[in-house]
Amino acid sequence: MTKLSVNINKVATLRNARGGQIPDLVKVAMDCETFGADGITVHPRPDERHVRRTDVMQLKPVLKTEFNIEGYPDRDFMDLVMKVKPHQVTLVPDDPSQITSNAGWDTKVHLDFLTEILDALRLADIRSSVFVEADPEMVNYAAKAGADRVELYTEPYAVLYPKDPEAAVAPCVIAAKEARRLGLGLNAGHDLSLENLNYLYKNIPWLDEVSIGHALISDALYLGLEKTIQAYKNCLHP
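Given the sequence above, the corresponding structure tokens read:
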């Protein structure tokens, strides 16, 4: 079964626009779980423009499903995840100024750096995932670095999907087959939506997890959070 992890960064962005605690990030995360989410994802950035370090600390004790923390593994980020001990840490190559993740790691160039970080996560008994392009070479070097999983960066798939679904998904399938050959777990994320999620799933039914935030929270403005989560869960079936 492919799990749905809901990224709640956009909820934190809305809260931060006015200050205070509305909407309540912790309550939203717990509601997501109640409504069927299999996990919660956060991406605490250095400038805390959405999810804050204090949010991360408050979420860990109350979550009942899987907790996934994304981020660039600088010293502050690694200190945070070592304190929190989430179920999974997803390493992304973001510059602090980026609005959102827009590329995967060059795992070949950064092999030594990633190996050191992944060794630390393994010693802490935290499952690791490395954010990569849908490129079998990048998957291969993620395995060499010691990753438990890779997360396929799916924006290129989402952009091409409306014009040519078959061509859009082809690189993802090739990279996913390489991950399976190497014994890596497989996640996917970025710009996945109700429009394109089921097609990705049907072509890669061995996906372990998808992480979805922007589209899901946007859909919830119209459908409500419970119906939206169920709609996304329904996409993860044949």
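The radius of gyration is 17 Å. Try to locate this feature in the token string yourself.
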